[in-house]
Amino acid sequence: MSLAIKSSHPLHPNLETILQKIPIELKERMNRRFLPDDTPIDCPNEKAFIRIHKQVIKALQVLQRTETQWNLLVEKIFSLEDVMKNLNSRDRMFKHTFETPRNKLTRFFYNSTIEWYWRCFFYGYCKKTLAIMAGILSVAVVWSEVTFFNKDPPLSIFAIIVIISKQNYDYLAIEILSTVVILYLCYCAYSTVLKIKLLNLYYLAPHHQTNEYSLIFSGMMLSRLTPPLCLNFLGLIHMDSHIIKVQVLETHYTQVRQSKRYGELDFSKSIGEYFTDYGPYGCNCYNF
Protein backbone atom coordinates (compact mmCIF):
# COMPACT_ATOMS: atom_id res chain seq x y z
CA MET A 1 0.00 0.00 0.00
CA SER A 2 2.83 2.41 0.78
CA LEU A 3 4.24 1.74 -2.70
CA ALA A 4 0.91 2.41 -4.35
CA ILE A 5 -0.13 5.45 -2.29
CA LYS A 6 2.00 8.54 -2.89
CA SER A 7 2.06 11.68 -0.77
CA SER A 8 -0.27 13.49 -3.14
CA HIS A 9 -2.91 10.78 -3.03
CA PRO A 10 -6.13 11.67 -1.12
CA LEU A 11 -5.87 8.39 0.87
CA HIS A 12 -2.31 9.13 2.05
CA PRO A 13 -3.47 10.49 5.48
CA ASN A 14 -5.25 7.18 6.05
CA LEU A 15 -2.04 5.34 5.26
CA GLU A 16 -0.12 7.53 7.71
CA THR A 17 -2.71 6.79 10.41
CA ILE A 18 -2.08 3.06 10.00
CA LEU A 19 1.71 3.41 9.83
CA GLN A 20 1.82 5.50 13.01
CA LYS A 21 0.41 2.57 14.96
CA ILE A 22 3.30 0.30 13.96
CA PRO A 23 6.34 0.38 16.28
CA ILE A 24 9.62 1.73 14.93
CA GLU A 25 11.47 -1.60 15.16
CA LEU A 26 8.78 -3.29 13.09
CA LYS A 27 8.98 -0.53 10.50
CA GLU A 28 12.72 -0.98 10.22
CA ARG A 29 12.30 -4.72 9.87
CA MET A 30 9.74 -4.15 7.11
CA ASN A 31 12.05 -1.75 5.29
CA ARG A 32 14.84 -4.34 5.25
CA ARG A 33 12.64 -6.89 3.51
CA PHE A 34 13.01 -7.39 -0.22
CA LEU A 35 9.68 -7.48 -2.01
CA PRO A 36 9.36 -9.77 -5.03
CA ASP A 37 9.10 -8.28 -8.47
CA ASP A 38 5.52 -9.41 -8.92
CA THR A 39 4.29 -7.51 -5.85
CA PRO A 40 0.96 -5.90 -6.74
CA ILE A 41 1.02 -2.14 -6.44
CA ASP A 42 -2.59 -1.50 -7.37
CA CYS A 43 -4.13 1.45 -5.62
CA PRO A 44 -6.37 0.15 -2.79
CA ASN A 45 -9.77 1.58 -2.01
CA GLU A 46 -11.17 2.82 1.28
CA LYS A 47 -12.63 -0.59 2.24
CA ALA A 48 -9.18 -2.15 1.91
CA PHE A 49 -7.78 0.48 4.27
CA ILE A 50 -10.50 -0.25 6.82
CA ARG A 51 -9.79 -3.97 6.59
CA ILE A 52 -6.02 -3.60 6.95
CA HIS A 53 -6.47 -1.12 9.81
CA LYS A 54 -8.48 -3.72 11.78
CA GLN A 55 -5.88 -6.37 11.02
CA VAL A 56 -3.04 -4.12 12.18
CA ILE A 57 -4.78 -3.29 15.47
CA LYS A 58 -5.50 -6.96 16.17
CA ALA A 59 -1.98 -8.05 15.21
CA LEU A 60 -0.40 -5.43 17.49
CA GLN A 61 -2.59 -6.54 20.39
CA VAL A 62 -1.61 -10.17 19.84
CA LEU A 63 2.06 -9.21 19.55
CA GLN A 64 2.05 -7.17 22.75
CA ARG A 65 0.14 -9.88 24.63
CA THR A 66 2.49 -12.61 23.43
CA GLU A 67 5.60 -10.64 24.33
CA THR A 68 4.22 -9.89 27.80
CA GLN A 69 3.28 -13.52 28.42
CA TRP A 70 6.72 -14.62 27.23
CA ASN A 71 8.45 -12.22 29.61
CA LEU A 72 6.27 -13.37 32.50
CA LEU A 73 7.03 -17.00 31.67
CA VAL A 74 10.76 -16.31 31.60
CA GLU A 75 10.54 -14.52 34.97
CA LYS A 76 8.64 -17.48 36.42
CA ILE A 77 11.28 -19.90 35.10
CA PHE A 78 14.11 -17.94 36.72
CA SER A 79 12.12 -17.67 39.95
CA LEU A 80 11.60 -21.44 40.11
CA GLU A 81 15.26 -22.03 39.33
CA ASP A 82 16.24 -19.69 42.16
CA VAL A 83 14.04 -21.65 44.56
CA MET A 84 15.62 -24.93 43.49
CA LYS A 85 19.11 -23.51 43.93
CA ASN A 86 18.36 -22.04 47.37
CA LEU A 87 16.65 -25.10 48.85
CA ASN A 88 19.97 -26.52 50.10
CA SER A 89 21.43 -23.19 51.13
CA ARG A 90 23.31 -23.43 54.43
CA ASP A 91 23.27 -19.73 55.26
CA ARG A 92 19.49 -19.61 54.62
CA MET A 93 19.64 -16.41 52.65
CA PHE A 94 17.74 -16.25 49.38
CA LYS A 95 19.97 -15.35 46.43
CA HIS A 96 18.53 -14.25 43.11
CA THR A 97 20.02 -14.89 39.71
CA PHE A 98 19.07 -11.35 38.71
CA GLU A 99 18.82 -8.90 41.58
CA THR A 100 15.98 -6.41 41.45
CA PRO A 101 16.24 -3.10 43.30
CA ARG A 102 14.10 -2.77 46.43
CA ASN A 103 13.31 0.13 48.66
CA LYS A 104 14.44 0.31 52.28
CA LEU A 105 11.05 -0.63 53.72
CA THR A 106 10.88 -3.81 51.62
CA ARG A 107 14.45 -4.75 52.49
CA PHE A 108 13.68 -4.31 56.21
CA PHE A 109 10.46 -6.36 56.38
CA TYR A 110 11.28 -8.82 53.60
CA ASN A 111 15.01 -9.39 53.69
CA SER A 112 16.89 -12.34 52.24
CA THR A 113 16.44 -14.53 55.33
CA ILE A 114 12.68 -13.98 55.56
CA GLU A 115 12.36 -14.56 51.82
CA TRP A 116 14.26 -17.87 52.11
CA TYR A 117 11.99 -19.14 54.90
CA TRP A 118 8.89 -18.08 52.99
CA ARG A 119 9.75 -19.34 49.50
CA CYS A 120 11.74 -22.43 50.46
CA PHE A 121 9.88 -23.61 53.56
CA PHE A 122 6.49 -22.07 54.42
CA TYR A 123 5.19 -21.52 50.89
CA GLY A 124 4.85 -25.22 50.10
CA TYR A 125 3.12 -26.00 53.39
CA CYS A 126 0.71 -23.09 52.91
CA LYS A 127 -0.30 -24.38 49.48
CA LYS A 128 -0.78 -27.91 50.83
CA THR A 129 -2.92 -26.56 53.68
CA LEU A 130 -5.05 -24.56 51.26
CA ALA A 131 -5.39 -27.60 49.01
CA ILE A 132 -6.66 -29.71 51.94
CA MET A 133 -9.12 -26.98 52.99
CA ALA A 134 -10.34 -26.64 49.39
CA GLY A 135 -10.82 -30.42 49.19
CA ILE A 136 -12.86 -30.44 52.40
CA LEU A 137 -14.98 -27.52 51.18
CA SER A 138 -15.50 -29.22 47.81
CA VAL A 139 -16.76 -32.41 49.47
CA ALA A 140 -19.06 -30.37 51.73
CA VAL A 141 -20.41 -28.37 48.77
CA VAL A 142 -21.04 -31.46 46.63
CA TRP A 143 -22.77 -33.30 49.50
CA SER A 144 -24.89 -30.26 50.32
CA GLU A 145 -25.81 -29.79 46.66
CA VAL A 146 -27.00 -33.39 46.40
CA THR A 147 -28.98 -33.38 49.66
CA PHE A 148 -30.21 -29.78 50.00
CA PHE A 149 -33.77 -30.81 49.04
CA ASN A 150 -34.18 -32.91 52.22
CA LYS A 151 -35.63 -30.70 54.94
CA ASP A 152 -36.42 -33.20 57.72
CA PRO A 153 -33.91 -34.41 58.73
CA PRO A 154 -31.56 -31.81 57.24
CA LEU A 155 -28.67 -33.45 55.40
CA SER A 156 -27.01 -30.36 54.00
CA ILE A 157 -23.88 -29.63 56.03
CA PHE A 158 -24.28 -25.88 55.70
CA ALA A 159 -27.96 -26.04 56.67
CA ILE A 160 -27.07 -28.01 59.82
CA ILE A 161 -24.45 -25.42 60.79
CA VAL A 162 -26.92 -22.58 60.23
CA ILE A 163 -29.63 -24.33 62.28
CA ILE A 164 -27.25 -24.93 65.20
CA SER A 165 -25.98 -21.35 65.04
CA LYS A 166 -29.56 -20.04 64.93
CA GLN A 167 -30.51 -22.03 68.00
CA ASN A 168 -27.49 -20.65 69.88
CA TYR A 169 -28.05 -17.11 68.53
CA ASP A 170 -24.53 -17.22 67.10
CA TYR A 171 -24.92 -14.76 64.25
CA LEU A 172 -21.15 -14.32 63.85
CA ALA A 173 -20.83 -17.99 62.85
CA ILE A 174 -23.60 -17.53 60.26
CA GLU A 175 -21.85 -14.49 58.80
CA ILE A 176 -18.48 -16.27 58.65
CA LEU A 177 -20.04 -19.38 57.08
CA SER A 178 -21.93 -17.33 54.50
CA THR A 179 -18.85 -15.32 53.55
CA VAL A 180 -16.52 -18.32 53.27
CA VAL A 181 -18.92 -20.52 51.31
CA ILE A 182 -20.01 -17.81 48.87
CA LEU A 183 -16.39 -16.78 48.28
CA TYR A 184 -15.42 -20.38 47.61
CA LEU A 185 -18.35 -20.90 45.24
CA CYS A 186 -17.44 -17.70 43.40
CA TYR A 187 -13.79 -18.75 43.20
CA CYS A 188 -14.67 -22.18 41.78
CA ALA A 189 -17.15 -20.76 39.27
CA TYR A 190 -15.23 -17.72 38.09
CA SER A 191 -11.78 -19.35 37.98
CA THR A 192 -13.27 -21.95 35.62
CA VAL A 193 -15.61 -19.87 33.49
CA LEU A 194 -13.24 -16.93 32.98
CA LYS A 195 -10.47 -19.27 31.78
CA ILE A 196 -12.58 -20.58 28.92
CA LYS A 197 -11.20 -19.34 25.61
CA LEU A 198 -14.23 -18.86 23.39
CA LEU A 199 -12.88 -19.37 19.86
CA ASN A 200 -9.62 -17.90 21.20
CA LEU A 201 -11.29 -14.48 21.12
CA TYR A 202 -12.73 -13.80 24.57
CA TYR A 203 -10.36 -14.64 27.41
CA LEU A 204 -8.58 -12.82 30.22
CA ALA A 205 -4.86 -12.19 29.86
CA PRO A 206 -2.77 -11.10 32.86
CA HIS A 207 -0.97 -7.77 33.35
CA HIS A 208 -3.50 -5.56 31.54
CA GLN A 209 -3.28 -7.47 28.25
CA THR A 210 -7.03 -8.13 27.95
CA ASN A 211 -8.77 -6.27 25.16
CA GLU A 212 -11.99 -4.37 25.61
CA TYR A 213 -14.23 -7.03 24.03
CA SER A 214 -12.96 -9.72 26.40
CA LEU A 215 -13.46 -7.39 29.37
CA ILE A 216 -17.07 -6.71 28.37
CA PHE A 217 -17.74 -10.41 27.81
CA SER A 218 -16.17 -11.38 31.16
CA GLY A 219 -18.08 -8.65 32.97
CA MET A 220 -21.30 -9.90 31.41
CA MET A 221 -20.54 -13.45 32.56
CA LEU A 222 -19.67 -12.17 36.03
CA SER A 223 -22.94 -10.26 36.41
CA ARG A 224 -24.99 -13.21 35.17
CA LEU A 225 -23.35 -15.77 37.45
CA THR A 226 -23.44 -13.82 40.72
CA PRO A 227 -27.24 -13.88 41.36
CA PRO A 228 -27.58 -17.66 40.77
CA LEU A 229 -24.61 -18.35 43.06
CA CYS A 230 -26.21 -16.37 45.87
CA LEU A 231 -29.51 -18.13 45.23
CA ASN A 232 -27.73 -21.47 45.27
CA PHE A 233 -26.29 -20.73 48.71
CA LEU A 234 -29.73 -19.80 50.06
CA GLY A 235 -30.96 -23.18 48.84
CA LEU A 236 -28.06 -24.95 50.56
CA ILE A 237 -28.95 -23.44 53.95
CA HIS A 238 -32.71 -24.14 53.54
CA MET A 239 -33.90 -20.59 53.15
CA ASP A 240 -35.66 -21.12 49.82
CA SER A 241 -39.21 -22.48 50.22
CA HIS A 242 -39.43 -23.31 46.52
CA ILE A 243 -36.81 -26.02 47.03
CA ILE A 244 -37.66 -27.44 50.45
CA LYS A 245 -41.45 -27.10 49.93
CA VAL A 246 -41.90 -25.67 53.45
CA GLN A 247 -43.08 -22.17 54.26
CA VAL A 248 -40.22 -20.40 56.00
CA LEU A 249 -39.31 -16.80 56.60
CA GLU A 250 -37.53 -16.14 53.33
CA THR A 251 -35.22 -13.36 52.40
CA HIS A 252 -36.40 -10.67 50.02
CA TYR A 253 -33.94 -12.02 47.49
CA THR A 254 -35.71 -15.39 47.23
CA GLN A 255 -39.10 -13.67 47.11
CA VAL A 256 -37.98 -11.61 44.10
CA ARG A 257 -36.53 -14.74 42.53
CA GLN A 258 -39.73 -16.70 43.02
CA SER A 259 -41.79 -14.06 41.26
CA LYS A 260 -39.35 -13.41 38.43
CA ARG A 261 -37.53 -16.63 37.75
CA TYR A 262 -39.94 -19.50 38.28
CA GLY A 263 -43.07 -17.82 37.08
CA GLU A 264 -42.87 -19.41 33.62
CA LEU A 265 -41.77 -22.86 34.84
CA ASP A 266 -44.14 -23.60 37.71
CA PHE A 267 -46.88 -24.73 35.35
CA SER A 268 -45.00 -28.00 34.63
CA LYS A 269 -44.12 -30.11 37.65
CA SER A 270 -41.48 -32.17 35.83
CA ILE A 271 -39.73 -29.08 34.51
CA GLY A 272 -40.42 -26.54 37.20
CA GLU A 273 -39.59 -28.82 40.14
CA TYR A 274 -36.65 -30.90 38.97
CA PHE A 275 -34.91 -29.06 36.17
CA THR A 276 -34.84 -25.65 37.83
CA ASP A 277 -33.72 -27.17 41.15
CA TYR A 278 -30.96 -29.42 39.88
CA GLY A 279 -30.10 -27.70 36.64
CA PRO A 280 -27.48 -24.96 36.71
CA TYR A 281 -28.69 -21.91 38.55
CA GLY A 282 -27.33 -19.85 35.69
CA CYS A 283 -29.79 -21.31 33.17
CA ASN A 284 -32.56 -18.86 34.02
CA CYS A 285 -30.65 -16.05 35.64
CA TYR A 286 -31.37 -13.83 32.65
CA ASN A 287 -34.78 -13.07 34.17
CA PHE A 288 -33.01 -11.02 36.82
From TrEMBL:
Membrane topology: Multi-pass membrane protein
Keyword Membrane annotated: yes
Localization per record: Membrane
Tree of life domain: Eukaryota
GO-annotated cellular components: membrane
Family in the record: Belongs to the LIMR family.
The protein's name: Uncharacterized protein
Phylogenetic classification of the source organism: Eukaryota, Metazoa, Ecdysozoa, Arthropoda, Hexapoda
